[in-house]
Write a structure and sequence with these properties.
Oligomer: single chain
Distance between the termini: 31 Å
CATH topology of the largest domain: Growth Hormone, Chain: A
Largest sheet: none
Strand content: under 5%
Radius of gyration: 23 Å
CATH class of the largest domain: Mainly Alpha
Order of helices and strands: HHHHHHHHHHHHHHHHHH
Number of helices: 18
Helix content: over 70%
Structural class: mainly alpha
Shape: globular
């Protein structure tokens, strides 16, 4: 994904200076610690905060998901931060300084978001339900603004980190470095799910079984949640202090001294010149210049919508329908992460060589749709172990789909324009993921307005995801690889030449 958003570089040294050493496997895993930290933070923000806001605080899912989605809507800033790290040094370093400052920034933002969340929860309790008032609008706007800043900080750290991966690697070992980092991201999600479950599970030992008495959350909060927030609040406050500090430590451990020892940036002056051309507007023109390009990227948008619409509703589903505690719903991230990790790490070796990349993507989409049906079935039976199994299989199918689509994407991209295509796809994926997150909340609230049974409301979200995955298969059937490869270079040349001619 974003790990490959750099064009093919000229690695020839412009001086007689000795080239830096190649990164070894231990250094690759060390760099992956930053990605692991991102995975842990993803669990905290999307796995815990949305659950607490929707189920424990009775904040409407549309409000919660909308605020969370703000960190994705500022995704175009990734291009700007990438260009900034090409030209401006921080702490005398080209990339690492941005990584450190950005990590500190999104850690602070996460803690501030929790404090605003408590204010919204207090308003709900005082009013006996959600009511739109100037005060609630103000706190909601502030929460959305904080998550927007969270997204900016995330972009300012993750994009320069991606550039650092390119700086320290050669073409022959870049794929290994990228694969290691992606796997470490999934490890972070698994670690975050397990550790979050253990920490929050300590509340149960003190007699506060969170979520055990959760009532039905009606649209606009007609019924409040009798959860002991006095016990929950200090635990979450501590969690959102300790974990961001740990993630910041991982960022330092991952990158400290790496740039000075391994970076080849000074030998690649063509990088800055090349990246200056990758603007958001120009990327969009390239994406729409070819019919096949438009078809394939439409498939990728549908894929993101189909996979990520559940992000803001899965944990509340476990709490409201299955009466799971916060620690138990947080553990759902671990089941999903294990499945995805297995899917990502095995598909390239076992499935793609046998089925091919396009057929692997189709199979993944179909299996993902089937797992949503299993998740709905688990809700009707209210069998927690079936839900956990379904979430694991969903992760497995998502890993299969992701690996197949990324492999297909790399094949359909000319090497000399890989940065433009994959970078633009990263923006499209982030934007569609933001739309998916907020859409999940909107569809859930709509379902609660239409149905009296929570399982039907949540089933509407998962059913829609299954339909989207089937539509994605239909879109993928229209992709003609040969036509794509023949036309892409010409299309890019026309667009870029037109831009250069002014």
């Amino acid at each position: 994904m974003a790990m490959s958003d750099s064009p093919k570089l000229d690695t020839r040294s412009k001086s007689s200076a000795k080239s830096p050493p190649n990164v070894d496997i231990l250094t690759m895993f060390r760099l992956g610690l930053f990605q692991m930290g991102l995975g842990i933070m993803a669990v905290l923000t999307l796995g815990i905060l949305n659950r607490v806001m929707i189920t424990e605080l009775a904040i409407p899912a549309t409000v919660a998901a909308g605020c969370l989605a703000m960190h994705q809507f500022i995704a175009p800033a990734r291009v700007w931060f990438g260009q900034l790290s090409d030209t401006k040094r921080v702490f005398g370093l080209q990339r690492s300084g941005y990584v450190w400052l950005g990590t500190a920034g999104f850690g602070i933002a996460a803690f501030c978001a929790v404090q605003v969340m408590w204010q919204l929860g207090a308003l709900v309790r005082a009013a006996g339900g959600w009511v739109w008032t100037p005060e609630s609008i103000g706190w909601t706007a502030l929460l959305a603004l904080i998550f927007a800043f969270y997204g900016l900080a995330l972009s300012s750290s993750s994009t320069p980190f991606t550039a650092l991966l390119v700086d320290v690697s050669e073409e022959e070992n870049r794929s290994k470095l990228v694969g290691t980092s992606w796997s470490m991201l999934m490890v972070g999600i698994v670690v975050g799910g397990i550790s979050g479950g253990i920490i929050l599970g300590s509340l149960q030992q003190s007699g506060a079984v969170l979520g055990a008495n959760v009532g039905t959350v009606l649209l606009f909060g007609q019924k409040t949640i009798p959860t002991p927030l006095e016990t929950l609040k200090p635990v979450l406050n501590s969690l959102f202090i300790v974990v961001p500090l740990v993630v910041l430590g991982l960022a330092f451990l991952a990158t400290l001294g790496i740039e000075k020892k391994y970076s080849r940036y000074s030998q690649r002056s063509s990088l800055a010149n090349r990246e200056e051309k990758v603007t958001f507007g120009r990327a969009l023109r390239i994406l729409t210049a070819s019919r096949q390009t438009g078809i394939f990227f439409s498939f990728l948008v549908l894929l993101s919508l189909g996979i990520f619409m559940q992000e803001a509703v899965l944990e509340p589903y476990g709490g409201e329908v299955f009466q799971m505690s916060i620690s138990q719903t947080t553990m759902l991230n671990a089941y999903w992460g294990f499945g995805t990790l297995i899917g990502v790490s095995t598909t390239g070796f076992l499935v793609v060589p046998r089925l091919g990349k396009k057929n692997t993507s189709k199979l993944g989409c179909l299996l993902t749709a089937a797992t949503f049906g299993l998740i709905i079935l688990a809700g009707f039976t209210r069998t927690a172990i079936l839900l956990q199994t379904a979430v694991f299989l969903f992760g497995l199918a998502a890993g299969l789909t992701t690996t197949g689509s990324i492999s297909l994407m790399l094949d359909l991209t000319a090497a000399e324009t890989a940065g433009t295509f994959i970078g633009a796809w990263g923006l499209a994926q982030a934007m569609s993921r933001a739309v998916a997150t907020i859409s999940g909340g909107i569809v859930l609230d709509l379902g609660k307005a239409l149905f009296n049974q929570p399982v039907l409301a949540y089933g509407l979200v998962f059913g829609l995801q299954a339909v989207i995955m089937l539509i994605a298969v239909g879109m993928l059937n229209q992709v003609n690889i040969k036509e794509f490869q023949e036309n892409t270079k010409n299309a890019i040349a026309i667009v870029m030449e037109g831009d250069l001619d002014g």
